[in-house]
Amino acid sequence: MRTIFTIDAIDNIMLEVISSYFDLSHSQIFKEINEALNKTIDILKMKGIDYADLKNCLIPRLDRKEIILVFDTQQIDSGWYGYEVFKKVIPLFNKDSTLSVLIGDFSDRINNQQFLYDRFFESLNQINTFKYKHSSQFFFVYINNLSIDMINHFNEGLKV
Q1: Are both 85 and 128 inside the same structural domain?
Q2: Residues paired with residue 103 on neighbouring β-strands, in sequence order
């Protein structure tokens, strides 16, 4: 049996929903997971990537850091703000690094803007100026497996 490396599978309810909807047993789900893993490994291999080499970016390490880059979409003159963000972010990556990148909007699923506002500024290291109006104006880019130098490189490279 192969080992599955994952950032955070605990909060993923997809398998639970599929299992319930299709009335699948644990052994059937286990089989589906392993088939998906094998397909993923085969696809990566065709692209010259060894799945085992991705372990460091899929499983957080205590000796590495993570960062969430926060972008104010109101300062981007395009509805395709993700594209505009990555035009700035991708050139900052070291092509030899192995990182995990996750993206998303700061959406208000709990319908509590004050709570989100408070959490937002709790640990924000603000580099550029902006005016907070609503959580939905922000787009996040999460990157892990970083050194302090890499974090500084991203912060410097994104200063306006």
Answers
A1: yes
A2: 141
